[in-house]
Specification:
Helices cover about 35% and strands about 15% of the residues. It is built from 15 helices and 15 strands. The strands form 4 sheets. Strands 3-9-8-7-6-4-5 form a 7-stranded mixed sheet, with helices on both faces. Strands 12-13-15-14 form a 4-stranded antiparallel sheet, covered by helices on one side. A two-stranded antiparallel sheet has the order 1-2. Bound molecules: pyridoxal-5'-phosphate. This is Serine decarboxylase.
């Protein structure tokens, strides 16, 4: 069930929605603008993002209060109606969300009582600052849980609750850079864009490594690239679940490749587990992410599989590395070792709450359900003659990009070139998948009724075996 932390008196749909002056039209809010006005144009069948076109999006304006507003309460009623309509649109959009790896299945009703507090964990989680309205006690509890999961002793780890997986990558790569100031950053070309952003921000030399069809890093290419830069240490981003294909880089082979190419103790590995960092420990046969191996840091997003209703993440690194990065800050009476200054103090409480409720066993059950449902989706797509691929350790189903942008928007599918994906999260059940499959099969029949228009070939993206185009179907 979907819970809420906002004031119930404002959000009670029975009370407020009934009072609306006109029928609610979810399209008005969820799909208010044409794709062109939104900065995306389609020309000759090609989508292009045009900077500068995104200036006239729909918005709720802010109007100066009337002088007598306090007396009439009209403004209050107006705002309540906007919020109620917005809530309805969220319910509607949540029902049709499939493309982004967010677990929308949660109930945090019990935490509603905390919304009145400005909880801020600025500074180091382990050093209390002068600001007393914080949640460090929850933050450290959550960090301990993750350090245990990734097998790093309490007195050997450092970490913090970040604002998102991106911040985890920015931090992990920065720690690597501080450990090896002249290190070169290596990342597979299918790494998340935040990795390449980190390289730009820190002005680091960055080498892109090729990938296999599955999306995982190609260690033969990695070895070649290491050979070209033997004089500089290596900082490597290892993907524990790539963004588009859910591919898991083979950590053991990455380490072996480093050692075989003479980088025995001149490397730093950051593991980007934004999506899959909390799923993989519970997948049978999956290689282990553990600090018993020579890795420097691991990060994960808290709003993805874990299901926090606000963006957040967890970053864990070795305590020995953090001293190189941190500075004392007198004004805080704490230490600065994080990327951001102020940090969301609510997020650790949400994480603490859900980890307590689900525990290792709860997550294990949810992972198994996601993998089962992902197989169901992939098998049914293939049975319907639709190109599709599912990596062994993943719940991300990659398939042929639907032809119709309206369909893509309705199901909020993430697309890249000729492929789209669905990330099967705990809230994605068989009923939802069946609805999606039925609609896709029906629509597809109309998109391709003219035999001159054929579904795209996606062999280059997901392999010939997974491709069902005219050329490759058997
Ligand atoms: C592999 C990977 N890394 C990093 C990120 C960034 O995570 P966030 O959106 O939490 O910043 C994502 C997001 O999808 C991702 O897939």
């Amino acid at each position: 069930m979907v819970g809420s932390v906002v004031d119930v008196s404002l959000m009670d749909p029975c009370e407020k929605v009934e009072a609306l002056p006109r029928e609610f039209d979810p399209k008005e809010i969820s799909c208010p603008i044409t794709s062109e006005a939104n900065g995306v144009v389609e020309e000759n069948g090609k989508r292009e993002i045009v900077l500068g076109r995104n200036v006239h999006t729909m918005c709720f304006t802010i109007d100066e209060p009337d002088a007598d507003d306090e007396i009439t309460g009209e403004k209050e009623a107006y705002m309540a109606s906007v919020l109620a309509r917005y809530r309805k649109s969220l319910v509607e959009r949540t029902k049709h969300h499939l493309g982004y790896p967010y677990n929308l299945d949660f109930d945090y009703g019990a935490l509603g009582q905390l919304q009145h507090f400005s909880i801020n964990n600025l500074g180091d989680p382990f050093i209390e600052s002068n600001y007393g309205v914080h949640s460090r006690q929850f933050e450290v509890g959550v960090l301990d849980w993750f350090a245990r999961l990734w097998e790093l002793e309490k007195d050997e780890y450092w970490g913090y609750i970040t604002n998102c997986g991106t911040e985890g990558n920015l931090h992990g790569i920065l720690v690597g850079r501080e450990v090896f100031p002249d290190g070169i950053l290596y990342a597979s070309k299918e790494s998340h864009y935040s990795v390449f952003k980190a390289a730009r921000m820190y002005r680091m030399e960055c080498v892109k490594v090729g990938t296999l069809i599955s999306g995982e890093i190609d260690c033969a290419d990695f070895a070649d690239k290491l050979q070209l830069n033997k004089d500089k240490p290596a900082i490597i981003n290892v993907n524990i679940g790539t963004t588009v294909k859910g591919a898991v880089d083979d950590l053991d082979t990455v380490i072996k490749t480093l050692q075989e190419n003479g980088f025995t103790d001149r490397f730093y590995i950051h593991c980007d587990g934004a999506l899959f960092g909390l799923m993989m420990p519970f997948v049978k046969r999956a290689p282990k992410v553990t600090f018993k191996k020579p890795i420097g840091s691991v990060s994960v997003s808290g709003h993805k599989f874990v299901g926090c209703p606000m963006p957040c993440g967890v970053q864990i690194t070795r305590l020995q590395h953090i001293n190189a990065l941190s500075r004392n800050v007198e004004y805080l009476a704490s230490r600065d070792a994080t990327i951001m200054g102020s940090r969301n103090g609510h997020a650790p409480i949400f994480l603490w709450y859900t980890l307590n409720r689900k525990g290792y066993r709860g997550f294990q059950k949810e992972v198994q359900k996601c993998l089962r449902n992902a197989h169901y989706l992939k098998d049914h797509l293939r049975a319907a003659g639709i190109s599709a691929m599912l990596n062994e350790l993943s719940s991300t189903v990659v398939f042929e990009r639907p032809k119709d942008e309206e369909f893509i928007r309705r199901w909020q599918l993430a697309c890249e070139g000729n492929i789209a994906h669905i990330v099967v999260m705990p809230n994605v059940n068989i009923e939802k998948l069946d609805n999606f499959l039925n609609e896709l099969v029906q629509k597809r029949a109309s998109w391709y009724q003219d035999e001159h228009i054929q579904p795209p070939c996606v062999a280059a993206e997901i392999g010939e075996d997974n491709c069902d185009c005219v050329l490759h179907k058997n």
